[in-house]
Amino acid sequence: MKTFQEIISDNSYSVPEWINNHADYFAHLGRDGKNTETLDEHIQLVLEYFNRLIEANGLEPVVNNLIKQYLLLNKLEPNCELAELIKEMFVGVVLFHDFGKINPGFQSDKMKNPRFKNPNTVLGSKHSIVSVWLLIAFYYNLVRSRGLVDLSNELPGNMPFLFILLGMVYPVRQHHGQLYSAFDSTPFSQNEIDQLKQLGEVFKPDLSGVFDDLLYIFQDEIFKELVSDDGFSASGNIAGYLLIKLSFSLLTAADYYATNQFVSGIKWNDFGVFTPKLKEKFINNLYNIDYNKNLLDKNHDILKEPIEKFSEFSNRNLNLLRTRLALEVLNNLEGKSTKRLFYLEAPTGGGKTNLSFLAVGELLKNDSNINKIFYVFPFNTLITQTYATLTDKILMEEGEVAQIHSKSGNASSNNSDVTEEDGKYGVEKLNFLTGYFYNYPILLTSHVKFFNIMLSHKKDSNYGLHRLANSVVIIDEIQSYNPEIWGKLIHVIREYSELLNIRFIIMSATLPKIDKLLKIKDAPFVNLITDKEEYFKNPNFSGRVKYDFSLTQKSTFDLEDFAGEVSQIINSELKTNPDLKVLIEFVKKSAANEFYN
Is 511 exposed, middle or buried (0-12, 13-18, 19+ CB in 10 A)? Predict the structure, then answer.
C-alpha cells in the first residue's frame, strides 16, 4: 500500500484540485472577527497534523494491519485494490471533513463572508452533512467506475466495502460531536439531497452521474433494508470498528491542533512519545535504584536455590525473595518480545510496582515500536504513589510523566461538549492541551479513564485512542471489576493488543486467572511468575500480618474504654519499636475526632 506521506503529497489531494474558486471560502474567523483562515489553509494544516500524529505514534503499520485484518475477516484478499482504496479514504476523511464549508449558508452566517448570501435553505449553516455527501459521492463514483460496487435498484454486492465507506464517513458527520451509531438512520433527508446535489456543482470532479443512485439508496426504507441486510451487518468486525474509531480520533485531534494554531499562533510539536534517549534514561535509572543494581549480575544463582532456604522471617530474606521475583520476571520475558499479554502476580510486599517497571524496561528494550506507557489503577492514591516512585526513584521529569484522573485538575476531566459550531480554542486552553490529548510518554490514570479511551463514544475520550497504539499498558487490580464483565474485558484487551500493537500486563496480588475461569482456549497470557504459590506461602509474605480480634468480643462498645485499651497496646509496642506507625480507622469522622480528643 502507498504510505500516508505518498498519498498526502499527491497534488490531487488538495483543495485547489477539488473546489472551484477555492480561495473564496473561509474555514475560521479569528477572535477579532476580521482575521480569516481560508478553507485551503485549514485543510492543509489539518493534513499536516494528521501526518505528524501518524509518524509520532508509529501508526502507519497499525492502520495497514487494521485494513488487512478487516478484509481477511471478510474473507477477502488483503492486498487487493480495496485495501488501497480504504487507505486513501482514511486520508480522504481528513481532506473532506470541512469541504462542507462551501455551503453558502455557512459562509454567510458563520464566516460573515461578504461574497455569499444565506439562501435560507433546509441546510441552513450546516457543514458536516455537506462534507459527508461529497465524501460518499466521490468515493462511490470512484468504486463504481472500477466496477466494484453498484447501488442502483437492488442491494449491491461487495458489502464489506460499502460497510466501510458508510462507516468511514461517520467521523466526518460527527467530528464536532460524539459517536453513537453509524447506521441508525439515513444521514440525509430527501430535501437535503436536492440541495446537496446543487452544492456538488462547486466540486470539480463531476459527481452528477452518481446522484440518482445515492438518492435511491438514502431513502429511509431502502437504507434500513441495506443496513439490516445480513451481508452488510456481517461485514462489521473489530478491525472495521477500530478503523472508524481511530479515524475519528486522528481527525478530531488534528483538527483541534490546527484550529488552535490558527487562533493562538502556537504550533504544537510535542506529541509525548518515548525517544531513544528517554528509553535509555528510563532503563538506566531503573537499574541504578539500589535494590535493582544486583539484578544486572547475569550469574545470579538465587533462582537455583530452593525457596525454603528463605523461610526464616527476616528483612534479609524478604529482600532476597524480592530479588528472586524480579529475576523470574526478567527470565520469563526472555524470548517473549512478540507476546502481547502478560500476568504479573506477586504477594503484597513483593514489590509489584518495581516488578512492573522491570517488565516495561525489557519490553522497551526489545521492541523499538513501543513509544508510550500507561499505568492504570483502581484508586487515585495508587496513582499518586506510583507517580512519586517514577519521579523520585527513576527521575522522570515534568512532561515525561503525568497523572490524569478526576482529581488531577487536568483538562482531560473537562467533559464539555463541542457542538456543530467550532469550540473555543486558544491561549486559555494551552495549559490543558497536553492533558487533553494524553501527550506524555508515561501516563498514570484510572480504570475509568483508561477504558473510556478504549470504548467510549465521547469525543474527549476518543482524542486519546490513537495514543494507545504501540504502548505498554499495566492494569492493576483488574479483579476490582464486576466478574460479570471479565469476559468482555479480556476479549477487548486481547483484540486491541493484536490490532493496535499493545502489550498488556495484568497485575495483582490476588488475580484470578480470568482466561482459565472463562475457559478460553489457547489462553494467550504469559505468566511472569512461574509458581506464585511458593511466594504467597513463604512466611516472609504470609506471616507479615497477624490478626487480633479480642477487642471485638465485648457485647457493648464504649469509645472511652476502647481508647484506653488501644493506648495500652500501642504504648506496650512502642517500648520495643519506637518507630512504630499506627493506623486507627473509623467509619465516621465524628468518631475519629472524639477518639483523637
Answer: middle
